Amino acid sequence: MSEQIGLFGESENNDANEASSMMDVSKRVSELHHLLHKYNHQYYVLDDPSVPDSEYDALFQELKSLEAEHPEFITPDSPTQRVGDKPLSAFETVTHELPMLSLDNVFDESEFRAFDQRIKKMLGITDSEIIEYACEPKLDGIAVSLLYENGLLVRGATRGDGTQGEDITLNVRTIPSIPLKLEGEGYPQRLEVRGEVYMPKKGFNRLNEIAKAAGEKTFVNPRNAAAGSLRQLDPKLTAKRPLEFCCYSAGVVEGGSLPESHYAVLNQFKAWGFLTNKEMACVQGIDECLAYYQNLHAKRDDLAYEIDGIVFKVNRFDLQKRLGFVSRAPRWAVAHKFPAQEKITVLQDVEFQVGRTGAITPVGRLEPVFVGGVTVSNVTLHNMDEVERLGLMIGDSVIVRRAGDVIPQVVKVVEDRRPENAVAVSLPDDCPVCHSEIERVEGEAVARCTGGLICAAQRKQAFIHFASRKAMDIDGLGEKLIEVLVDKNMVTSLGDLFRLEAKDVAALDRMGEKSAEKLINSLSASKQTTLAKFLYSLGIREVGEATAQNLAKAFGKLDAIMNASMEQLTAVEDIGPIVAEHILHFFENEANRAVVTDLVELGLAWDDVEVLNPVELPLNGQTWVLTGTLEQMSRTEGKEKLQALGAKVAGSVSKKTHCVVAGPGAGSKLTKAQDLGVDVLDEAAFIEMLNQYGITV
């Protein structure tokens, strides 16, 4: 009997311990729910996090581990349940209990004042009386309905046609600014919260950057990106998109009540954990509404999200009820729209412009369209990669976007409007200015004219760059004067600047004797410069001020730079193979070398540069010997290549010889090398070594 009592007692103790343990887990899960919901709200809604990301991540992982061990504690409002459901095959239809109506629009002050007059007339009040309006930015996103029961999110739906929408519950649960469980207390048993799902500009730009890098299709604008993200059948994809939800009204309210005005309701929503727009306001009368509109219009481009106007609503619900609705919109609200930032127009032609470095840029000629506050008739298409990415053809209808001071851009082709006579855009074979060959290097998006200084388009820009403050700093030699000098063929090469005479310059329009004399003096003074500034002034592709400084410090002399090998150049700090190749190609061009020589002969000079970072060549300190006949190159060429790598090339073999290159017919030198144990390479091994150091044969 005692044994039986003991056994029962042990079992009871185990049960009690297990129950206590489970209570501890339940309590900890509840604590983690509370903390993570609070930190989510601080981060995504208040934009005021109180803990670092590492702290949040640690708590989140703890909750995941507890739920994995005890799945019975997983609840729909758990922070871990924002993502995790399987993809849908299709969205189910939701019928809205209260229709989600659209808004009427006004586009100028007179139309908005007429709206205010109609309100007063319907309410039977005088023009002098003031109506209180709630004001909110009109977010450019997707209208969404969220249904809460007893404080828990049970359904999310799109607006659809206003009567029926799509069930997107799994997707809205992934949006961090949407509370899975309402905060505080006092909320109705059933509460429908309506608002806008949108994508902030920063997230949109990053999303498109990732898509471009992956060679994928980009989104036209943040609204399209938000809509596409929200309608993903796989909620895991939606979860990866940077979406936000901002509430703007209530729908169904059962088992409770809300405040008596729209502005007060939004503040109540904020207390229950929703994101509300920080720019919302409550104002008195039409003039304050217009001032609010102008203020937000001025701030529009600096906001973190896109807005396309302001929504004005009669604030008091009793007045809203008296005003009622028309068939598709409330009488008590209106959207005062901003000028459109996107318009459709026709691409009439594509022309090609030549830049200072020879870059060939396609420029679209548009049927003029008023967008973003200005009339746009030209738009840069950047390069042929962008033309191909857009699938652009001459004659296409295109969507043009201009936001604030941003340069207008074509963001999409309206393919179903493409005419039968549309013409493909093709890169010309020859430069449109000098008719030199156009080169498009594999792996580079930009095509370039190979004409260099013989190309008039590049010539003007080359002079402008040469004379600029950070280059030769020639006072008085501005863009307009350079254009005149080039157009009149007074200068065709950089050296011609220093051959100008005061009397010839004085004869130009708007130039007198004093101005001409001043220019000649400035040209003379500029001759004393630095090696780094001179290098920068030549306009070598991708050789900016810092690179020019590094070259000067590494080589010390102009001749050394002009004759440097790929290996020597890439040994310089911050110079990679691409920049080194641009430098090589520039100085391999005889016309460029002639210009440089001419400038030096004309008196351009600089103090010697102390070589702070001497270039370490791979064969420095080594002595090599060439013997026999080389078939792929001459012995002289072989010698030059070895010297470019820092080696000394001797005529005889000794114990100090590092290596001998022996071709067919090698005689006594080869024998002596073998006797002394000196390394010997045949021509194939020699060429392979040169290739390893970036020297081609």
Automatic annotation (TrEMBL):
Biological processes, Gene Ontology terms: DNA repair; DNA replication
Domain of life per record: Bacteria
Organism annotation: Litoribrevibacter albus
Binding residues annotated for Zn(2+), in chain numbering: C431, C434, C455
Keywords on record: DNA damage, DNA repair, DNA replication, Ligase, Magnesium, Manganese, Metal-binding, NAD, Zinc
Family: Belongs to the NAD-dependent DNA ligase family. LigA subfamily.
Enzyme class name: ligase
Catalytic activity entry: NAD(+) + (deoxyribonucleotide)n-3'-hydroxyl + 5'-phospho-(deoxyribonucleotide)m = (deoxyribonucleotide)n+m + AMP + beta-nicotinamide D-nucleotide
Keyword Metal-binding: yes
Residues involved in NAD(+) binding: D53, S54, E55, Y56, D57, S102, L103, E136, R159, E196, K313, K337
Protein name: DNA ligase
Documented EC number(s): 6.5.1.2
Cofactor(s) recorded in Swiss-Prot or TrEMBL: Mg(2+); Mn(2+)
CDD domains (alphabetical): BRCT_DNA_ligase_like, LIGANc
Record InterPro entries: BRCT_dom (IPR001357), BRCT_dom_sf (IPR036420), DisA/LigA_HHH (IPR041663), DNA_ligase (IPR001679), DNA_ligase_AS (IPR018239), DNA_ligase_CS (IPR033136), DNAligase_adenylation (IPR013839), DNAligase_N (IPR013840)
GO MF, any single term: DNA binding
GO cellular component annotations of the record: cytosol
Record: active site: K138 (n6-amp-lysine intermediate)
Domain BRCT: 614-697
Function: DNA ligase that catalyzes the formation of phosphodiester linkages between 5'-phosphoryl and 3'-hydroxyl groups in double-stranded DNA using NAD as a coenzyme and as the energy source for the reaction. It is essential for DNA replication and repair of damaged DNA.
